[in-house]
Amino acid sequence: MTDRTAEPQSTEGAYVESGAEFTRDTHYIPTRITADGRDGYPVEPGRYRLVAARACPWANRAIIVRRLLGLEDVLSMGLCGPTHDKRSWTFDLDPGGLDPVLKIPRLQDAYFARFPDYSRGITVPAIVDVPTGQVVTNDYPRITLDLSSEWTRYHRDGAPDLYPEPLRDEIDEVADLVFRDVNNGVYRCGFAGSQEAYESAYDRLFARLDWLEERLADRRYLVGDIITEADVRLFTTLARFDAVYHGHFKCNRNKLDEMPTLWSYARDLFQTPGFGDTIDFTQIKQHYYIVHTDINPTQIVPKGPDLSGWLTPHGREGLGGRPFGDGTPPPPPRPGEEVPAGHGA
């Protein structure tokens, strides 16, 4: 996700406001795609295109959920490159720099097609209505929940229930704490405009990570004994922690691989089909270190860290749990949707 306050569309140093605490703009396009089409956009196979970027943790959630639920045949996906300019994410990975379905060079074209005067950030993930070329929604927390609850008719056989009714209150509660202190907390550290704002965010981040370390010590997953939406939301931040947030965002009390429980939990998910095979460490590092020029003016991308640890045994099977509940793992990524060789662990 990129929004006007969190990830401004600029490569020329507009991420940190001197003297200010980082505040995320959380106002997104609220339109929903639902089974009954109450907002004018009914769930229909082939009608919509998910636009994402592997570099972005918020978009990475949608990539994971789409794959776990087996929605590839009904919801196509376009991928933007890891860097962007002040105007928009671009389709620079595609031949000719055009998305092959939407036929546009910049995601902003889909936003402006629906809202000509759109003044907020051009964000990923976004779902675009292919027939009109217009953005439908960029409400990233709602997108994944709706994929789980509104697109059920088109889930693959064996798709897991990532948002089960009996666990929803607890999932929402845990996900909110994780968002405020961890998902967004790393940005509050990295984009802090004062020492005081940075230290406050730093303390909240590591207090919550310590809480998670304790919570996960005797349970395999965050809520219940299955993978849920809460795990997806935490995972995409943990996957980026040592590669980016520890150094680039100064979240450096310790690395993830120095927190035994969280590190084994993250490896457990990484080695679960649908999680680690969506992670492109090369694009992740390129995005943060090249785009945030006021934090890293040289735009030098670090060679490290060593990624081989992600594939080492995690030992969490002994805690029990059923990763996919009564369902089954997803098949391997579709041709053309694989992380490029050499970009993963």
TrEMBL record:
One Pfam family it belongs to: GST_C_2
Marked site (Lowers pKa of active site Cys) residue numbers: 245, 288
Annotated region described as Disordered, given as residue ranges: 307-345
GST C-terminal domain residues: 161-288
Any GO MF annotation of the entry: glutathione transferase activity
CDD domains the UniProt entry points to: GST_C_Omega_like
Residues annotated as the enzyme's active site: 56 (nucleophile), 187 (proton donor/acceptor)
Residue positions binding glutathione: 89
GO cellular component, one term: cytoplasm
Stored PANTHER family: GLUTATHIONE S-TRANSFERASE OMEGA-LIKE 1-RELATED (PTHR32419:SF6), GLUTATHIONYL-HYDROQUINONE REDUCTASE (PTHR32419)
UniProt name for this protein: GST C-terminal domain-containing protein
